[in-house]
Design brief:
7-stranded mixed β-barrel; 18 strands; 4 helices; mainly beta
Length: 263
């Protein structure tokens, strides 16, 4: 039974290759540093040595990645071409598609560099280099958590926009009652889903990547403008893993009443 401090796991998303479309899963293992198989691979620009993101190379959002046998990445390009695993054939196809020399690299083996832009609203602003955490090409913390309450808040402010969860790329979407940017209030508290315990830490600062076109979604600058004007450019919360385990869609997520500031 869903209580007043409870929500329901509505969707679970894994993104095997950074900035490509991911795969929705009925259940997934949560590890100490994130979802099993999430963002283990990235497309590296061989001229700069940096892993590309959808902000630098918007075309990445047009491809889809999943995990195949042996946890090999399986990529589907927009023209339907399928690529399995890393290697010369994959690198050649990706380079031809993107029009630049690139390589599919594994985070565990490379620990590559990425970039973020000094101004989240200006793609021409200074690109600042940073090193991603070991073994995953993640931007900040292991998981990104969002609620349907926040999607409703955005849609109420910009009803002409498509507030599709795929624009915002969370790992966990929780179906929660209420209004407003609900998950912001959870920072510093524990969200328990079965044996799994998660601790939201801070709001996720968004950039123009949420405006990019992708399959089934058109370019929409007003999505970001709405977040910037009404919520400091934030949507969702970066979340740490306190205890791992397996979670599934329709599981109940309990918001623990007591906070744990030591985590």
């Amino acid at each position: 039974m869903v209580g007043p401090n409870d929500s329901v796991v509505a969707q679970l998303w894994r993104y095997p290759v950074k900035s490509m479309q991911g795969e929705r899963l009925p259940a997934v293992k949560v590890e100490a540093d994130g979802l099993d198989g999430d963002r283990r691979w990235g497309v590296r620009d061989e001229r700069t040595g940096r892993v590309l993101t959808g902000r630098r190379e918007a075309g990445l959002l047009e491809a889809t990645a999943s995990l195949g046998e042996g946890a090999e990445p399986v990529i589907r390009l927009p023209d339907g071409t399928g690529l399995v695993g890393a290697g010369d054939a994959t690198d050649s196809a990706l380079s031809d598609w993107l029009g630049r020399p690139v390589r599919l690299v594994e985070a565990a083996a490379h620990g590559d560099r990425a970039e973020y832009f000094a101004d989240p609203t200006d793609d021409a602003s200074e690109a600042i280099e940073w090193t991603m955490p070991p073994e995953r090409f993640v931007d900040a913390m292991p998981l990104l958590l969002m609620t349907t309450a926040s999607l409703r808040a955005g849609a109420a402010l910009h009803p002409a926009g498509a507030w599709d969860v795929r624009r915002f790329r969370p790992n966990l979407l929780l179906d929660a009652s209420g209004d407003g940017w609900l998950e912001d209030e959870w920072c510093g508290r524990v969200v328990r889903i079965g044996e799994v315990e998660l601790v939201p830490h801070q709001p996720c600062v968004r950039c123009t990547m949420v405006t990019r076109p992708q399959p089934g979604l058109t370019r929409d600058l007003d999505v970001y403008r709405t977040l910037a004007r009404h919520h400091g450019g934030n949507l969702g919360v970066w979340t740490a893993v306190l205890n791992g385990g397996t979670i599934a869609e329709n599981d109940i997520a309990h918001l623990v009443a007591d906070s744990r500031p030591d985590h």
